[in-house]
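job 3f2a | input accepted
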Amino acid sequence: MKIGFVGVGKMGVGMVLNLLNAGYEVDFFARRQSASVKEVLNQGAFQVRSLEELAQSTNVIILCLSNTKVTKEIICQLLPGLLAHSLIIDTTTNDVDGPKDIARILAKKDIAYVEAPVTGGVKQAREAVLGAIVGANSEESFHRVSPILNAFCKKVVHIGPVGIAARAKLISNFLALGTATLVIEVFKQARALGIEWAPLYELAQLGSGNSSGLQRIIGSAVDGDYKGYVFSVDNCLKDLTYLCELSEQTGTSSKLSPILRQIYQQATQEGLGDHMISELLDPSNSRG
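job 3f2a | predicted structure (288 res):
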């Protein structure tokens, strides 16, 4: 079976490699030649020249893109060439309205759309232990995507119809990014107080403050590597902005989410948007 793929970036490269390992053929489209593109090419993926060619090469396409605006642009470019009864699997972290809007557009051409944003990061994508939060309008669609998602996911859960997965993903990211931000702020203050990180980290892992965020950020930071949490400030700000918009639309606002968004807005204004959030601990940065 051949799978089409758009978005061979830090997350997408692991997904594609595991699809290949599971026996799928993978055709992909990329606008630029990156290290990720070269890696999947070396493992047997095929690079098409255009989105139109990709649409015509397969009836199943996975998207792993940076935001809803980009996703909608890609959908519009794929749409003229998509075959009837094709399937789009969207692993992008979207805003609250994006998935329903996209599903309506595709339904007019009898094309199925399933949202499947994932929990986990770059390492988990490579290790095929992501979690897929699936929004599908029918059990048939869910069963159609499950074997494909299982190629790079440890857990695939049908959480409800299209639209609900985007909400669940934003709430999941609220938990993950809130925890990661707390770790960053705690260890910045520890440094300011003259507390050595290595013993504090060792002891923190024995208490209820232990988390994968703590381990990913501080496990490498104690050795001077501040890139342990592979998620950019820009992406963090985007997701927290989507979360705040969701809260405003539904009247379920949290006191904490605007504070988190403000932290990353400031970091972006300081020119750190392309840095990993764990790099905010780096003393060479103005916020370290």
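job 3f2a | The beta strands are 2-6, 25-29, 46-47, 60-63, 87-90, 112-115, 118-119, 130-135, 153-160.
job 3f2a | closed
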